[in-house]
Amino acid sequence: MPTVDQAENLMREGAFSEAKKILSQILNDNPGDLRAVCDIGIAYTETGENEKAIKALEHYIRNDDSNPYAWEAIGCARFRIGELEEAKHCLERSLELSPDNPSSLRNLGIIEGMEGYHEKGLKLLQDALRLAPGDFRTLYALSYAYRDLNKREQRRKVIDQLLDLELPDDINKDAQLTRIRMNLGWE
Questions:
Q1: Which of helix, strand or coil describes residue 151?
Q2: In the prediction, which pLDDT does 185 show?
Q3: Long-range Cβ contact pairs of 96-99 (< 8 A, separation 24 or more)
Q4: What is the mean pLDDT of residues 57-80?
């Protein structure tokens, strides 16, 4: 019989699709297993199934609103479908429950920057990086925050840090192109 612990171990390894299979089996047998509901909602968020994630996580939060990771996941899912105000609310709630959550800080920082609050977004991103040094997602977001604030030298340093890491192909390509554009004076 599969267990939630097995699914969570897979999720820690980034195997969200496999975790969803296990969690689906668990929920078929026991639809009231709130831990499995939360985990499948997080897994749906990580695999881009945002509507499913929102439904699962809203159900979870109606029963237990004290889990910062559930709030973070629903905030990310809402962000991805363009519901920025709802996303902010969820991420702020996550941070009320767990103030040192670098992922929630990063995502809230991105939203603040998108809404034109560049300095506020930058501070949140810097806080996230302080808590999770070397996190490529935060460094990537930080490079855009520095761009938006016209802080070229800080951006150059962040791009160099990024390119020293193993990155997904799309982010690596974008960082390489950014470095070239900066060296040519196009940015």
A1: coil
A2: 85
A3: 97/66, 97/67, 97/68, 97/71, 98/68, 98/69
A4: 96
